[in-house]
Amino acid sequence: MVVGAGDFTVAEGAPITVEGDAGMVFLPAGNTVMRMVPRPAARRHENTEPSDNGMLNTADGKPVLLSVNLNDPSEVDAVSINAIAGVGLMRTEFAISSIADAANEEKQLSIYRRVLEWADGKSVTIRMLDVGGDKPLSGLEDVHAELRGIRLLLERPEIARVQARALLRAAVFGKLAVLLPMVTFPAEVEATRRIFEEEAGQLDRRGLPYRMPPIGMMVEVPAAAVMLDTFATADFFSFGTNDLAQYLAASTRRDVTADSQKTSPAVLRILTNAARLASTKPMSICGDMAGNPQYLPALLAAGIRHFSMAPARLPAIRSALIGLNADGTTAAGE
Length: 334
Ligand code: PEP
Ligand code: MG
Description:
The protein is of the alpha/beta class. Helices cover 33% and strands 16% of the residues. The strands form three sheets. Strands 5, 6, 7, 8, 9, 10, 11, 12 and 13 form a nine-stranded mixed β-sheet that branches. Helix 2 packs parallel to helix 4, helix 4 crosses helix 5 and helix 7 packs across helix 9. About 4% of the residues have low confidence. Phosphoenolpyruvate binds next to strand 7 and helix 7.
């Protein structure tokens, strides 16, 4: 099922294809329209799921990791943990959908704990609330329209502090990494890290167990992508090509997705340069490009070795990977 797909235009009578599990709508022109919120799949995937723990090799033997993106914690019921390396992106804005949820530390803790325990020691990257702009949070209408993601969280630190505490406490139940949305400047990462340190001190005083997780950032704002070597305080990087494309093209998410063929060269170029600037820091990609085999050669050539995508996109990426070398060229005999 696909919900919240927004408006799009097709000629009268023209057929469209809806891929519910992937949260995708395909237009007649061959364009993919929307990545939106797939409802949790009703059934566990068939027993034919691979059990390679999402650890694959390119045709020339270089290791590649495949992880999943989750929107709702209940989506784990439909994913085989043996088929993935972990959760590369858990969007929290769908599970925490109101200002009351955002203030509820215990509720958040139980959501994060559930996913971490399910992952059974595999890495789970949970993104802090990415709300504001075109991602509203019910009850939070009194903020400037241009505030979104980490900028909004730092403007409303009471929201960030509750989430930081819930994440710190959840971290004892598995291998958690925290991802910051819509980062533009290094100071935003530093300020968030300070919040985590201060809240860890609070938990100490309350005698509650916690662990400090690695804190990384989405690379989805062009200004951050071109300056990635200045983000010394980020522990890791995750490329968000959905927003990167939107902001590079001065477009909207909907329009840029419909026009993805035209914008992708610019997105790939900025991503390739940013990957170089990331140097030795761990990096992955969790934007929709990660789940589209068409872009796999260029992403491999850019040095990306960890791909996180909607669960339904895994089979297509698995089979494309088999025929490619790590530099993105097609393997001999393919
Ligand atoms: C992105 O922007 O590519 C991304 C993964 O984040 P979201 O789609 O949630 O904005
Ligand atoms: Mg984004």
